[in-house]
């Protein structure tokens, strides 16, 4: 165990040495600042030093040499946070087992994916790069910043962001494991059982190691350590409150089920993802303190989302549930500001409420709200600048800043932004994928591997 | 002794087809006749003893598989067979840092049948067979041995086929009387790839990473319990026998390195992350995209074998048939030109990888896991064109890998006392017209005969 | 701020309406008859904007547009002060009506078996009672092209208006043959065929297309020569004949630049009479050639990713504008089903990224009406056209704009969908946390 901790320390040190994050100094002058937490400030400057917001006010004076962005007539908002995404990683579904708590998308970071740049072009600065939804308990997820241009995957990590893990209920786990492999779960009853069983084992694991760790320090102790399991250790960490659950879910009954399971196991950090029928159990979600990350208006792509409504975000918000709007899709994530605006149409949320859906609220859901999600002194300088109000359909993100570094500038957008080029790729290959048919991005890998399976068998 | 003698004493003749059929090698012709002597004198040859250390028109004497003398004006032993190598060039045999040469795929390759519980597959389906030993898969008759030997490779660090943990490697000579006879050092490194299993756990790279850590930690715990148990067995539960975990013990003790295949830039980062977390000694093999990871590799202390595979060379389409005026170009032309330029700039990075490691002061050898034998020499020449000197290239084939693998006392230079692994080419090896004429592997002579594209045998003039 | 108050008022109005409906009946019905929409700002699309204008609707048709109109005595007056009146929006390519729950093949009817099945008619399979339809029309999208998908010739698409209880009540007066022009490249990242296999499949598909076309020509000649007496029942050829004779448009789907070029060549070589290009995601690469061919295009979805890794990030957004700039006639489509309601936002993105607001509006109203040959009925607010229009409180391309009334073929459509019903039921759920 000591060795492992030593290893982790070493890891941390090596990150500091190698995955160093670039931080910038910048002044954004005279924009309309949508702070999210402190209303709208007209003609206001934002001063960024060493990647953090150090001053907000009118006519700020600066030292010579600091880069200035003239934002007169522009709208300046906190960088958009997508609480549900699958870009920036090379693998996302270890779909071979109903419980795979030990796997971690942070092991498969890919800083070269063009999607990271395209998302910056939509004002996004932080994303939750999630495991897929094939398993009742999927893998751990990584919160990354869109520092497109870095070549070391370590430099994508938002160091210090809390650990998170993907759970999944309903059709996906029951289809993959039950219907295809004849392994529990085939039903929503089975999903509950699989989760309860896993958490119970995690609890026992914690207890066994607790006993061992106490004994092993006693003089002359010569016992055997319990068997090490990365899976059970992770489940134990959930029970210890060290990992936030982000649960793929749609139907009201399954959402309610997990609330009860978490209550029984004393788990408090719980965010539901998609949660299309969250509006039906909004009082229960609010009462538990669970949060919800939803689509603005996606529905009917499968049976469990047939009884959905675009008013979901508004109903949840008005019932006191901390709600965000996510993308789960590399295209949709480019216009989350537009998705948030739909909550004004469907349920009449205010501008600040709508903006919070894609900034402060997802930050809360990822446990990073003290660092990002609003424009406040002391926060990290992740900022999106638009040529119009971001809740207008016509608004265009012009400049996107991460840690005070300009990572996207529409006026200087080059033609070919690839960092690595496949030397064997033909030049005019068109990779037109129908966005329409690939909505279930959560099921990537899983569907592919099973499609291959049926092809070869 | 006339040149004709040589033919008489040849143990093996290897024909190498050059040109348009790089993949197809002719059958080996076995002759049962043994050489009349184990002593050879290679005369009038330009000896490159080591990079930058040269003896012109000298003699190398070898006896019983070892080099016994190197220099000018040597007395040729009476029992020696003379190999006249006038104006030829002689080098220490090359060392391949990661290869499947001579290795068969497992006879009972894992069944492709659907596994009932894909989350808990048999270890072979999962690709977790670290207890395997490449010696069990060596076959002296494998064609790959001949083709690499014909290029001058006399030593290879070979690994078994498999998934994420295929087994332990061995350092072999590319010739010998038996499979075991080829082996210089068995169980040299624990071989690993970030390879996923086929529709069973671990089916993704995140699964492989998690499983790797878990096995390592389980092995660490099992090992420490074994030592507690060994100190006093009374009152303790017998440790479970587990060959998979036991295979990690020498790695945990840092007695054995992990040899990781890491072709792509992200493979490198992932492997280095595992290494920095777990702290095992590491050799990176078959590195193709390392230029952006140099600092990290350097600080990790990992040893490096760069791939001798390169992306295909692409000629820029100059558009000679439509030598358009600059302002006459369509948007499509401009885009195409830009894309071609990006691609060729990128290919240049692959070609320049060795030079950038050299410039950064990271010692490296070469590996051939995915390289086609027919491309290897021209690929080295592309690397030389990209900045590497001939001596540096030679070092990466000889002294440096010998040092990396801890074999400097036996291999890597042409000095007396070293194993008689030699390669002799008619011109300086990296000259584009050079042909390998003789290869000695542990004192056994192989004459390399070349055939033209039309299959006729090239007749060498004897003096 | 004013807007905020205004939309709050609208919400209250909507809620009150819903309350009234709830009293009236569980499922509100549409109303037909004589209406006058008074004192609104009329966006006619074809004849400019009329301030303080009115629109008179009698028996499904627009009978008067303008100021100081004489109002029929029986007309139901609807005050549109502060409101805008727009022609209904047309989505030029969807699956609406042909699918209900996408992942469930039992509810999916746009993809029949067979590579050449021109006789398959989308109109037949339209489900007028789809839950998706009210969700769409209350957002101002009143008319859509429902198109079959699949192999080379997957069938015949139909223009439908989103109100009615039978396909015939909904039919919008246009049918077009869908032709998926063979793709010379790969189908996407998951397509792992070898270069050679891709080429083979392409050559085969082109040969197949030429074969069917040649047969259709033969059939058409035989049919003409014998006055239809010398031909046997051959539904594929009969369906193709309408295209050959120029009685029906063929909608050629092509996206990659290479494929668009090949399609244009093929169309010209085969002298195809009525053609519409669809998809056209790389149209910007070959816009001049499309313009030269004089063929109109239906582009979309606008909200999509660029086709190639090295393309500029906004190519899909800017494509309609770039095509328009080259002089091509551009209509938009979502190629969606459940979210055809987002058509105005596809238009907004196209507008912002180069098409401009005015052209964007035309691309979802009068341009598709012209392309489909129904501009005498749809696409603008003009006397004599169908009363297919909506009333809203602002720019319909903006999300915060509320759409308050929708008329389709003169029917005043209830502003209710299952999504609004769920909102009303669950905003303040009863019982709440406790059942008592």
Task: Explain how this protein is built.
The complex is a heterotrimer of chains A (457), B (463) and C (436). Chain A has twelve helices and 16 strands. By secondary structure, chain A is α/β, with parallel strands linked by helices. Chain A has a domain at 80-217 and 227-373 and 437-456: TIM Barrel. Residues 1-18, 433-439 and 450-457 of chain A have low confidence and may be disordered. Chain B has helices at residues 3-9, 123-126, 143-151, 179-182, 205-231, 243-246, 249-252, 265-278, 294-300, 331-359, 373-385, 390-397, 399-404; strands at 12-17, 29-30, 39-50, 53-63, 66-71, 81-84, 89-92, 94-99, 153-158, 167-168, 170-173, 183-185, 190-192, 258-261, 282-287, 303-307, 364-367, 422-425, 436-441, 444-451. In chain B, helix 10 packs across helix 11 (373-385). Chain B is globular. Chain C has 436 residues and is α/β, with parallel strands linked by helices. Chain C is built from 13 helices and 16 strands. In chain C, the strands form two sheets. In chain C, strands 1, 2, 3, 4, 5, 14, 15 and 16 form an eight-stranded mixed β-sheet that branches. In chain C, strands 6-7-8-9-10-11-12-13 form an eight-stranded mixed β-sheet. Classes of the chains: A alpha/beta (457), B alpha/beta (463), C alpha/beta (436). Chains in contact: A-B, A-C, B-C. At the A-C interface, helix 2, helix 7, helix 8 and helix 9 of A face helix 1, helix 10 and helix 13 of C.
């Amino acid at each position: 165990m000591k060795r492992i901790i030593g290893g982790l320390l070493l890891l941390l040190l090596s990150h500091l040495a190698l995955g160093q994050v670039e931080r910038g100094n910048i002044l954004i002058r005279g924009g309309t600042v949508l702070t999210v937490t402190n209303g709208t400030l007209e003609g206001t400057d934002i001063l960024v030093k060493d990647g953090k917001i150090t001053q907000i006010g009118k006519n700020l004076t600066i030292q010579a040499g600091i880069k200035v962005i003239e934002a007169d007539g522009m709208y300046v908002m906190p960088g958009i946070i997508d609480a549900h995404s699958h870009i920036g990683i090379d693998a996302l579904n270890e779909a071979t087992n109903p419980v795979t708590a030990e796997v971690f998308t942070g092991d498969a970071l890919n800083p070269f994916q063009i999607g990271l740049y395209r998302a910056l072009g939509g004002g996004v600065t932080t994303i939750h790069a999630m495991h897929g939804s094939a398993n009742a308990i999927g893998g751990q997820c990584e919160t990354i910043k869109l520092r497109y241009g870095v070549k070391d995957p370590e430099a994508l990590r938002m160091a210090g962001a809390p650990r998170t893990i993907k759970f999944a209920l309903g059709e996906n786990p029951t289809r993959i494991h039950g219907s295809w492999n004849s392994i529990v779960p085939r039903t929503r009853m089975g999903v509950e059982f699989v989760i309860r069983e896993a958490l119970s084992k995690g609890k026992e694991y914690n207890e066994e190691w607790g006993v061992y760790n106490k004994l092993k320090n006693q003089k002359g102790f010569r016992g055997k350590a319990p068997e090490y399991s990365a899976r059970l250790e992770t489940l134990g960490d959930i029970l210890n409150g060290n990992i936030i659950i982000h649960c793929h879910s749609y139907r009201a009954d399954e959402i309610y089920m997990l609330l009860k399971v978490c209550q029984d196991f004393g788990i408090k950090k719980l965010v539901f993802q998609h949660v299309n029928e969250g509006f039906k159990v909004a009082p229960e979600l609010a009462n538990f303190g669970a949060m919800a990350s939803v689509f603005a208006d996606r529905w009917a792509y499968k049976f469990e989302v047939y009884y959905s409504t675009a008013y979901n975000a508004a109903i949840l918000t008005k019932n006191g549930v901390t709600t965000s709007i996510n993308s789960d899709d590399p295209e949709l994530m480019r216009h989350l500001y537009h998705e948030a605006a739909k909550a004004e149409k469907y349920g009449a949320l205010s501008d600040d409420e709508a903006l919070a859906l894609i900034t402060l609220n997802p930050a809360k859901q990822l446990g990073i709200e003290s660092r990002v999600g609003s424009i406040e002194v002391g926060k990290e300088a992740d900022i999106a600048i638009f040529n119009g109000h971001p809740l207008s359909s016509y608004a265009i993100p012009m400049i996107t800043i991460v840690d005070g570094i300009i990572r996207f500038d529409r006026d200087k957008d080059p033609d070919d932004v690839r960092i690595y080029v496949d030397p064997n790729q033909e030049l005019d290959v068109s990779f037109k994928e129908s966005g329409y048919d690939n909505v279930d991005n959560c099921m990537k890998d899983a569907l592919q591997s099973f499609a291959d399976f049926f092809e070869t068998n | 002794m006339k040149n004709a003698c040589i033919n008489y004493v040849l143990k093996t003749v290897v024909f190498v087809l050059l040109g348009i059929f790089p993949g197809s090698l002719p059958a080996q012709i076995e002759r049962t006749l043994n050489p009349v002597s184990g002593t050879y004198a290679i005369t009038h040859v330009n000896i490159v003893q080591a990079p930058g250390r040269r003896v012109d028109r000298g003699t190398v004497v070898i006896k019983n598989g070892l080099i016994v003398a190197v220099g000018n004006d040597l007395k040729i032993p009476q029992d020696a067979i003379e190999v006249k190598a006038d104006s030829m060039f002689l080098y220490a045999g090359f060392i391949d840092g990661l290869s499947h040469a001579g290795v068969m795929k497992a006879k009972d390759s894992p069944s492709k049948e659907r596994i009932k519980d894909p989350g808990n597959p048999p270890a072979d389906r999962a690709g977790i067979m670290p207890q395997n030993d490449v010696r069990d898969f060596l076959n002296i008759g494998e064609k790959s041995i001949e083709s690499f030997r014909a290029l001058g490779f006399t030593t290879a660090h070979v690994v078994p086929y498999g998934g994420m943990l295929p087994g332990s490697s061995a350092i072999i000579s590319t010739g010998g009387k038996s499979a075991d006879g080829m082996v210089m050092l068995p169980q040299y490194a624990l071989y690993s790839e970030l390879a996923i299993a086929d529709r069973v756990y671990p089916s993704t790279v995140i699964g492989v990473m998690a499983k790797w850590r878990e096995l390592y930690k389980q092995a660490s715990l099992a090992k420490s319990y074994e030592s507690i148990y060994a100190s006093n067995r009374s009152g303790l539960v017998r440790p479970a026998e587990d060959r998979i975990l036991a295979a990690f013990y020498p790695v945990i003790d840092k007695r054995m390195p992990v040899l990781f295949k890491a072709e792509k830039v992200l493979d490198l980062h992932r492997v280095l992350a595992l290494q920095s977390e777990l702290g095992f000694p590491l050799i990176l093999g078959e590195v193709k995209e390392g230029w952006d990871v140099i600092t990290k590799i350097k600080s990790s202390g990992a040893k490096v074998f760069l791939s001798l595979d390169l992306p295909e060379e692409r000629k820029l389409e100059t558009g000679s048939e439509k030598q358009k005026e600059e302002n006459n170009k369509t948007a499509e032309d401009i885009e195409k030109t830009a894309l071609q330029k990006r691609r060729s700039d990128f290919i240049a990075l692959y070609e320049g990888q060795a030079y950038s490691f050299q410039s950064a002061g990271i010692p490296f050898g070469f590996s051939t896991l995915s390289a086609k034998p027919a491309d290897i020499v021209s690929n080295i020449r592309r690397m030389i064109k990209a900045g590497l000197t001939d001596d540096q290239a030679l070092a990466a084939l000889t002294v440096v890998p010998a040092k990396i693998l801890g074999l400097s006392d036996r291999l890597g230079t042409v000095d007396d006392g070293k194993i008689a692994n030699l390669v002799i080419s008619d011109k300086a090896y990296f000259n584009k017209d050079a042909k390998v004429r003789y290869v000695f592997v542990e004192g056994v002579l192989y004459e390399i005969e070349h055939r033209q594209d039309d299959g006729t045998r090239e007749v060498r003039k004897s003096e | 701020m004013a807007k905020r108050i205004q939309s709050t008022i609208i919400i209250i109005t909507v809620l009150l309406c819903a309350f009234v409906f709830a009293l009236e009946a569980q499922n509100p019905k549409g109303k037909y008859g004589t209406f006058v929409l008074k004192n609104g700002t009329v966006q006619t699309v074809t004849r400019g904007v009329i301030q303080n204008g009115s629109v008179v609707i009698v028996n499904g048709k627009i009978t008067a547009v303008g100021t100081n109109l004489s109002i029929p005595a029986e007309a139901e007056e609807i005050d549109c002060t502060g409101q805008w009146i727009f022609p209904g929006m047309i989505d030029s390519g969807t699956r609406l009506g042909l699918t209900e729950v996408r992942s469930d093949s039992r509810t999916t009817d746009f993809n029949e078996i067979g590579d050449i099945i021109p006789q398959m008619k989308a109109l037949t399979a339209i489900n007028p009672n789809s839950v998706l339809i009210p969700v769409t029309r209350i957002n101002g999208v009143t008319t859509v092209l429902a198109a079959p998908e699949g192999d080379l010739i997957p069938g015949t698409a139909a223009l439908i208006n989103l109100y009615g209880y039978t396909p015939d009540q909904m039919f919008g007066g246009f049918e077009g043959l869908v032709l998926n022009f063979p793709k010379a490249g790969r189908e996407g990242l998951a397509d792992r065929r070898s270069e050679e296999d891709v080429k083979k499949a392409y050559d085969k598909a082109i040969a197949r297309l030429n074969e069917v076309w040649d047969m259709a020509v033969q059939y058409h000649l035989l049919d003409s020569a014998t006055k239809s007496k010398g031909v046997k029942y051959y539904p594929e050829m009969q369906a193709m004949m309408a295209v050959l004779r120029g009685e029906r448009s063929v909608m050629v789907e092509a996206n990659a630049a290479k494929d668009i070029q090949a399609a244009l060549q093929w169309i010209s070589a085969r002298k195809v009479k009525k053609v519409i290009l669809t998809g056209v995601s790389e149209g910007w690469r070959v816009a001049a050639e499309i313009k030269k061919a004089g063929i109109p295009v239906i582009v979309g979805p606008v909200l999509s990713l660029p086709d190639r890794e090295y393309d500029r990030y906004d190519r899909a957004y800017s494509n309609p504008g770039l095509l328009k700039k080259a002089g091509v006639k551009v209509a938009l489509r979502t190629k969606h089903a459940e979210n055809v309601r987002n058509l105005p936002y596809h238009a907004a993105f196209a507008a912002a990224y180069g098409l401009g607001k005015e052209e964007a509006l035309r691309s979802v109203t009068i341009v598709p009406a012209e392309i489909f040959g129904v501009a005498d009925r749809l696409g603008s607010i003009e006397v004599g056209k169908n009363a297919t229009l909506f009333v809203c409180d602002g720019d319909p391309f903006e999300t915060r704009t509320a759409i308050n009334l929708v008329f389709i073929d003169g029917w005043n459509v209830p502003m209710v969908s299952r999504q609004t019903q769920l909102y009303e039921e669950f905003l303040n759920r009863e019982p709440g946390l406790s059942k008592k």
